[in-house]
Amino acid sequence: MNRSMRPLLSALAILPLILLTPGEAAAGGDGPRAYALIPSGTNVTKFMFLSLDGNQSFAPGTVVRGSELDVNVAALQYVRSFDLNGNSFAPFMVLSYGSIDGAFSLGGNPSTVLTGEEDGLFDLQLGLVYGFLGSPALNSPAEYAAHKPGLQMGVLAKAFLPVGSYDSGRVLNTGGNRYALQLGLPTTLAMGASFLDPNFSTIEVLPSVTFFGDNDDPVGGAATSGQDPLFAVEAHFTRNFGRSFWASLDALYEYGGETQTDGIDNDDRQEAFSLGASVNYTLPSGVNLQASYGEVIGSNQNGPDGSQLRFAVITTF
């Protein structure tokens, strides 16, 4: 990266970073300011710890009815921004490792309880974000500082690759043994004189749909299992409070994701609404410390429940 960019990045407590979250679990979504504009040539690394408590595994769209699961994940993400045809383009990858343990009733029967515990790699995430409206490639500190933010829209594509630990003979797995693809339209109304405005704020909406491949070796002995697309709308209102701190109110709605076993519908469409909050503090060195909490406040009998606590340390170079 250009040396002249480094002092600017270190000084910007309000720098809107790309802060992606692995998966879309337990009221989490991708998080606030996840797809904000950053200068071209910027590298972002993010180390995250997530603790999930409820009836979801870490794999997207996976709900285990009647379960009480604890999932703990350490994840490392890398992002780099580029200038593509004059617009911002940012590919990324997320590698995650952790554990899942808990108990659930077999077939929803409370008298038949199974338990399990497993640790290992979770599925790899590869993706990209391309801004096509209000998302110019800002190739110098002067361009970034002078840019007046407004309405921004982009396209998101995120693939989940089945490299995680999986065995159909185990009760619980860290891997999903199937491919998944999330497509979305991250949209942000950014308000402020510039990204350096200490009162900078945003209204963010991310509609998305996740498509699932079949699992050809599911737990339970069936030949295949499948899942219908899962639709979601994630929303955030964020605001800066000076140059070192910002906070966000977060919401997530999910609908769909009915599963099939050997081609037969399981009549288990999901629906859930979650609320949460996030805070971000920037150290004088430019390192960002972030914490988020989210909880499902309403769902149908097949939907996700529980909560998510997330901590992150983000650096740019």
The coarse silhouette is elongated
Report the order of strands and helices: HEEEEEEHEEEEEEEEEEEE
Structure annotation, total helices: 2
**How many separate structural domains?**
1
Span of the ends, CA to CA:
7 Å
Helix content: under 10%
- Please state the structural category: mainly beta
Low-confidence sequence ranges: 1-26
- CATH architecture label: Beta Barrel
What characterizes the major β-sheet?
A: 15 strands, antiparallel
Return the CATH class: Mainly Beta
Beta-strand portion reads: over 45%
> What is CATH's topology name?
Lipocalin
Q: Roughly how many Å is the radius of gyration?
A: 20 Å
> What's the overall average pLDDT, rounded?
89
For the secondary structure, the number of strands is 18
The CATH fourth-level homologous superfamily: Autotransporter beta-domain
Description:
The protein has 317 residues and is mainly beta. The chain has a single domain, classed as Lipocalin (Beta Barrel). 4% of the residues lie in helices and 53% in strands. It contains 2 helices and 18 strands. It has helices at residues 5-11, 141-146; strands spanning 43-54, 67-80, 82-84, 87-105, 113-121, 124-133, 151-161, 180-184, 187-191, 201-212, 225-227, 230-240, 245-256, 259-261, 264-265, 270-282, 288-299, 306-316. The chain has a 15-stranded antiparallel beta sheet that branches. It has a 3-stranded antiparallel beta sheet with strand order 11-14-15, with no helix packed on it. A hairpin with a 7-residue loop joins strand 4 and strand 5 (113-121). 43% of the residues are buried. Mean pLDDT is 89; it is low at 1-26.
